[in-house]
Amino acid sequence: MNIHEYQGKAILKSFGVRIQEGIVADNVEQAVEAAKKLKEDFGSDWVVVKAQIHAGGRGKGGGVKLARNIDEVKEKAGAILGMQLVTPQTGPEGKLVSKVLVAQDVYYPGATETKEFYMSVLLDRAAGRNIIMYSTEGGMDIEEVAEHTPHLIFKEEIDPKVGLQAFQARKIAFNLGLSGDAFKDMVKFVAALYKAYDATDSAMFEINPVLKTSDNKILAVDAKVNLDDNALYRHPDFAALRDTAEEDPMEVEASRSNLNYVKLDGNVGCMVNGAGLAMATMDIIKIAGGEPANFLDVGGTANAQTVKAAFNIILKDPNVKAILINIFGGIVRCDRVAQGVIDAYNEIGNIPVPIIVRLQGTNAEEAKKLIDESGLQVKSAILLKEAADRIKEVFAA
């Protein structure tokens, strides 16, 4: 679950990570009050107005602006709020900006000794361990750094038996070329950052940039945080941080029905039970000449209600030209799933695209008979090859 920068920074601060302080605002008036509060607390007329969306590259799209006085705060906040911000990570449609973070200016006027670093904490699946990835080239696209200057990217593996060790934090500070007070502050920063990542069961913490100020303080200027959905039961307060306006509406609707759904760009809707079967189903669709329009896992309790909800979500995608239902009857009986498909079909009414139903497992033959005798415009199959042939028939018609 992605969260906004201001929310990620609040989590970091709660674990002792020094951050660029800021106040979130929903409108221009709140932005002005935030700027006044920051001046009162930190003494600078300059603030940074930052769009709050779930995407990186905001500065490139005009979503991060420096304001040197209150009039500029009004101007910059007014321009950013309500804009459809397009960045390299949003796609051409962009994202609507409904909040801005008014943050303190940490690049002190006239300062010449600041330095930006990149740092992230995430799981390295190949190594089976958490890693801290860092670079002296902060403030840039890390992908570009990795491609053109890979020797400037460092990785520190964390042994899960003992966690982050003090010598590893010192090694990171040394590799970043720091010394003196900045070195000591970076060691503290790394330790606090890893503690925050570990204690919150996060999937990723990315700080770009980590800033060394001209007075040798280390702080997080940005925060891109992805919380592990599967661990939210241990952090019920984090569930309130979810901003559904930043997510695909169909994925939000699917989550409310306890369906696992990911939209893709194809033309064949998929409804399956089990992630492995979903991958095989998408392969079959491609082999048959189609392209999967989604990943949709109805789980192990497929019934009329879940099938209906899945139908409604798939049919909202105008690119869908056919639907393949591929269910393995293990815990759930195939004939019950078939009846659920029939009931959902009758309840929804006229479904404008062909439906192929492949049921295999417990009571598969009975399920096929139910589908074939239902009188509905549904094509049944038992083998995957039969399902592929039905898809070919759809596109050949």
TrEMBL record:
Its cofactor is Mg(2+). ATP binds at residues 50, 57-59, 106, 116. Mg(2+) binds at residues 208, 222. Residues 271-383 form the ATP-citrate synthase/succinyl-CoA ligase C-terminal domain. Pathway: Carbohydrate metabolism; tricarboxylic acid cycle; succinate from succinyl-CoA (ligase route): step 1/1. It holds the Pfam family Ligase_CoA. One of its GO terms (biological process) is tricarboxylic acid cycle. One of its GO terms (molecular function) is succinate-CoA ligase (ADP-forming) activity. This is Succinate--CoA ligase [ADP-forming] subunit beta. The gene is sucC.
